[in-house]
């Protein structure tokens, strides 16, 4: 039965010509198009996972400060957050396939530049460039799926495969990336984009049908500017407060984002053809699905952020070994996303999404109770987390996409991707920031270090590892022990906060999504 919310959705068998201007497609054409669309999906998921495992080598090669290290990770998401909604709207106008091809070409080119970054500043700029072109990729893939698969049952399966693509990419990323990091420099992880995107650029013009909004209305540069600055400012505020606390920069950026966001909403409500239909947010099911999507991604990215460092810098694993360690959990995420769709006719989606969040809370609670020192505990916790995230991500994406007309799929997909990427930002910025602060506050440095060495060792675990290698001997060993203890203590504190947050999210998801009617047939609007 269709998984739909009690908000207007498309007719289950509409005429594709009416919505997209395209001839009806055969099943073979639709599934071939999906196969090609999965290439950029795999690329983005691999890219995000690989970076977490490459950070230790990047830290040793470029010697970034603690703040620069977070910027290397978050510059991509910061730029992406500001551009997802505008790019989704642009794709609705110029064509989603066209925008996807432009974004793929740019992403491959900038990836090559990032691979040869000579400094942390260079790499941060390159990551921002990847965010610019990355904003063209994911909303385009989702909106094309929305328009290619007009039948809700086919669409739900396609979305499950799309979500599984993220899971398989996350599973392949650590292994492939670990192998690359074992044999090449850290820059090689960025070059992976080239062999992935070349086949896409060769096949996409022939296998993917173009789609666009036939009556998009005029381009609204004021709305584009408002949402860009608002989202970038809010994302920066989240990232900044995690590291620096409540200071002037946080309040200025947060206030700017909120004020411009308010004017953006007011402008959309007053326009006959808004860039983004903000009235969707008045529906509890739609908003609940977005919130669940965001917080599930936050829990996954935050967990990978600290586990990848623990495995390599505390347990002494190679990047390849650390990647293989997390493969079972990422495979569980992929399988859970594919199988949960079959439970919808029997179990209300509110229970499934809330249940996924409870599993996320259980995973973090396991780390709190048993400690973060044991690799076995981390393995089991990640398996449970993968199951929970796989359940909640797949269903929340379907609830969001099934709520809009096909011609508005670009903007709706942009909302979905904004929640996804904001969750990724919060995973590294908020949870990563809490971990970094807890580490810095609890590390007991041994005597004998210079002022510069003490500062570097107290900033990050990677910094402590570099200093320990530099000083060597018993002093280096003592520093490594102190850093490992402080890091594991920080992991427990971060896990405790995350467990409470996931419990609250489970309650929120159940209350907001229980209005979804999984048995209602979609109705045309």
From TrEMBL:
Gene3D superfamilies, A to Z: MFS general substrate transporter like domains, Multidrug resistance protein D
Residues in coiled coil: none
TM helices/strands, residue ranges: 34-55, 67-87, 99-118, 124-145, 157-180, 186-209, 221-242, 248-265, 285-307, 322-344, 351-370, 376-395, 491-513
Single GO cellular component term: plasma membrane
Subcellular location: Cell membrane
Keywords noted in UniProt: Cell membrane, Membrane, Transmembrane, Transmembrane helix, Transport
Residue ranges of domain Major facilitator superfamily (MFS) profile in the record: 33-507
Name by which UniProt lists this protein: MFS transporter
Topological category with respect to the lipid bilayer: Multi-pass membrane protein
InterPro entries per the UniProt record, alphabetical: MFS, MFS_dom, MFS_trans_sf
PANTHER family reported for this sequence: MAJOR FACILITATOR SUPERFAMILY MULTIDRUG TRANSPORTER MFSC (PTHR42718), METHYL VIOLOGEN RESISTANCE PROTEIN SMVA (PTHR42718:SF47)
Keyword Transmembrane: yes
GO molecular function: transmembrane transporter activity
Gene source species: Rothia aerolata
